[in-house]
């Protein structure tokens, strides 16, 4: 079943791929034909309808919004704007929509389609003689060729743009284009084979453009432009072998971008300053800058040109003799650099430029494009095959991992079951000990009360009868009476001990009566004042549970009387069919339980906790120094 799924997925993927490529090609052909037909007309005035203009503007706004968010819906809104503008005769808006679509495609590095959009927009603006937009579009085309490192074409379009801006006396755009020309000359060695002398001349030419641009930006008080120029001038000095001077310029722009939280330009400045640190042999500082730039690119999804960042990181690790990381980043650099898309985009641009320059070669270019698409399909097939192989491997690995996780979980469950059994065994053992203890208490109480108590009572009766029948001197009579009093006291104490060991009131009348009896016995004449309250029905529970609650309450009341130094001790009993709870609250000195060591607290609290645990009960003490304490025991009746 899994193999059938992969085959179906593979066929569906190829079908979608062919459909998308055919759709894109057809869409570009339709736009080219539409613009050609428009250019063949003599459009000077049109009947512009307000509603049509609103609809087109709405799509243009959506285009800008989606483009800023890198959302592919930008292409849909661009095409909608083009269609609506054509139907309404809004020629200038067709050009604007084409420009917006081209800028979005540039961000996606689809330079072929972007070039087509800019060229069609340029045709329209040249036809209507809109100089400002003609210059803008020439500058965009220069940027496309600059990204592709095609020096001649980039220089041609940038110079056209500069000439028009100068005629219009547009200072800011003149400064921008001069900066583009400076960057183009500074990067010329990557476009063409250049000697070291030629490179130095290129740097001097670039500095000339940069300085002219910087003067204009300073006149216009444009801090963004000044920051970009500082970075570019720094890189020119670095390329000229003057890294010390270069460092000061780039640090200015770096500080500006940090202050304004401009992450994209900040990553570029960090990349550039790392090159300066490398030239200064400060490899650790260079690596810190590169890592920060890489983090920004990953967080902000700035993937354009990231292969150059990987290349410099690899070289920096190599300089630090960290050959493993150097190798890893060089592999990343190679993968990005040699991607299929990057290998094909230069051919696409050249073909589209030829198509723009010579309409007669239209069929030949379409044939070449078709062949290229076929090659791309083959490459995509290979890529999909590799992806499927990776997916199968991943699923196999995941299956093994899941089995290991299940085995670990089963082992954990068994260990948990063993722990629960051990806990249950301990509870049964504790309960058995308590039951044995209570049974022994009950036996001793019976023996004391019925055995020794009976003997002492018999002795008292005998002595009393002897007193009545014997002749005793006055001296011996006092001693005899004292002996009888001592015997009465012993019998009373014996009965009290027997009662405490196993109170008869608990056995016969229940927990409430037994607690009232105990409180009455232990209440001091003065303080603390003991008060007892009962809530709920007068219910009876199992003998073992009632004895356990009675013993715990005894311990809590005794502790409060001995140690709390309280004025009032309040005992509350709550009885319900499925729950029984006792609270002992005092207003005494309290204590910090965390600081109460084991030598001070003895075995009292532990015995209480053990008794509560044996019957699955809950025991809790809340106390703070100077604020009294509140002890709670609670049992749920199942």
Characterization of this structure:
This protein has 638 residues and is α+β, with helices and mostly antiparallel strands. Helix content is 77%, strand content 6%. The chain has 24 helices and five strands. It has a five-stranded mixed β-sheet with strand order 1-2-3-5-4, with helices on one face. The longest helix is centred in the middle third of the chain and has 108 residues, at 362-469. The model is unreliable at 1-26, 43-48, 340-344, 349-355 and 597-602 (pLDDT under 50).
Secondary-structure blueprint of this entry?
Elements (H helix, E strand, L loop, with lengths): L1 H39 L9 H19 L4 H16 L2 H17 L3 H18 L2 H17 L3 H18 L2 H16 L1 H4 L4 H24 L3 H17 L3 H17 L3 H17 L3 H18 L5 H14 L3 H15 L2 H18 L4 H108 L4 H28 L2 H6 L1 H12 L6 E8 L6 H21 L4 E9 L2 E8 L11 H4 L2 H11 L3 E6 L5 E8 L2
Parallel strand pairs: 1-2
Antiparallel strand pairs: 2-3, 3-5, 4-5
Helix pairs in contact: 1-5, 1-18, 2-3, 2-4, 3-4, 4-5, 5-6, 5-17, 6-7, 7-8, 8-10, 8-11, 10-11, 11-12, 11-13, 12-13, 13-14, 14-15, 15-16, 17-18, 18-19, 18-24, 21-22, 22-24
């Amino acid at each position: 079943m899994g193999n059938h799924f992969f085959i179906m997925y593979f066929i569906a993927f190829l079908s979608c791929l062919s459909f998308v490529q055919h759709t894109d090609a057809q869409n570009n052909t339709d736009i080219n034909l539409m613009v050609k037909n428009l250019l063949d007309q003599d459009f000077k005035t049109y009947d512009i309808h307000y509603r049509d203009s609103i609809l087109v503007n709405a799509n243009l706004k959506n285009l800008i919004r989606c483009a800023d968010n890198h959302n592919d819906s930008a292409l849909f809104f661009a095409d909608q704007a083009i269609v609506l503008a054509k139907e309404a005769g809004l020629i200038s808006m067709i050009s604007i929509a084409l420009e917006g679509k081209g800028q979005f495609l540039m961000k996606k590095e689809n330079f072929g389609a972007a070039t087509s959009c800019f060229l069609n927009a340029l045709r329209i603006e040249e036809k209507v003689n809109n100089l400002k937009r003609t210059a803008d579009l020439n500058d965009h085309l220069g940027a496309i060729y600059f990204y592709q490192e095609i020096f001649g074409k980039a220089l041609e379009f940038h110079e056209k743009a500069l000439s028009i801006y100068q005629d219009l006396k547009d200072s800011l755009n003149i400064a921008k284009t001069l900066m583009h020309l400076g960057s183009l000359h500074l990067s010329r060695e990557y476009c063409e084979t250049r000697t070291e002398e030629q490179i130095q001349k290129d740097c001097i030419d670039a500095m000339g453009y940069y300085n002219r641009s910087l003067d204009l930006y300073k006149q216009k008080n444009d801090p963004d432009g000044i920051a970009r120029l500082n970075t570019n001038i720094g890189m020119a000095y670095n390329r000229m072998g003057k890294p010390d001077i270069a460092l000061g310029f780039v640090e200015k722009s770096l500080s500006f971008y940090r202050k304004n939280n401009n992450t994209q330009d900040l990553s570029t400045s960090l990349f550039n300053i790392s090159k300066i640190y490398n030239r200064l042999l400060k490899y650790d500082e260079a690596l810190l800058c590169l890592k920060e730039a890489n983090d920004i690119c990953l967080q902000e999804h700035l993937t354009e040109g990231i292969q150059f960042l990987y290349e410099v990181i690899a070289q920096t690790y190599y300089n630090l003799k960290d050959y493993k990381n150097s190798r890893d980043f060089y592999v990343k650099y190679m993968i990005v650099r040699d991607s299929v898309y990057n290998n094909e985009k230069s051919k696409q641009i050249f073909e589209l430029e030829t198509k723009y320059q010579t309409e007669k070669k239209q069929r030949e270019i379409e044939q070449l494009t078709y062949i290229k698409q076929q090659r791309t399909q083959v490459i995509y097939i290979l890529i999909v095959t590799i992806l499927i192989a990776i997916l199968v491997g991943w699923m196999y690995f995941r299956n093994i991992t899941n089995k290991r996780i299940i085995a670990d979980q089963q082992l954990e469950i068994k260990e948990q079951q063993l722990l629960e059994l051990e806990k249950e065994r301990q509870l049964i053992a504790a309960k058995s000990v308590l039951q044995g203890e209570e049974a022994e208490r009950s036996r001793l109480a019976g023996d004391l009360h019925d055995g020794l108590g009976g003997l002492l009572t018999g002795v008292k009766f005998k002595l009393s009868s002897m007193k009545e029948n014997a002749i005793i001197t006055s001296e011996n009579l006092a001693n005899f009476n004292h002996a009888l009093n001592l015997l009465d006291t012993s019998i009373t104490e014996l009965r009290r001990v027997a009662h405490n060991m196993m109170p008869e009131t608990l056995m016969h009348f229940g927990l409430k009566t037994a607690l009232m009896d105990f409180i009455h016995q232990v209440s001091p004449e003065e303080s603390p004042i003991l008060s007892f309250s009962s809530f709920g029905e007068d219910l009876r529970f199992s003998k073992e549970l009632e004895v356990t609650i009675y013993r715990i309450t005894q311990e809590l009341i005794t502790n409060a009387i001995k140690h709390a130094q309280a004025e009032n001790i309040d005992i509350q009993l709550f009885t319900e069919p499925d729950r029984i709870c006792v609270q002992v609250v005092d207003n005494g000195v309290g204590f910090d339980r965390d600081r109460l060591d084991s030598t001070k607290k003895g075995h009292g609290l532990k015995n209480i906790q053990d008794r509560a645990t044996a019957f699955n009960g809950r025991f809790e003490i809340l106390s703070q120094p100077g604020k009294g304490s509140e002890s709670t025991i609670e049992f749920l009746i199942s």
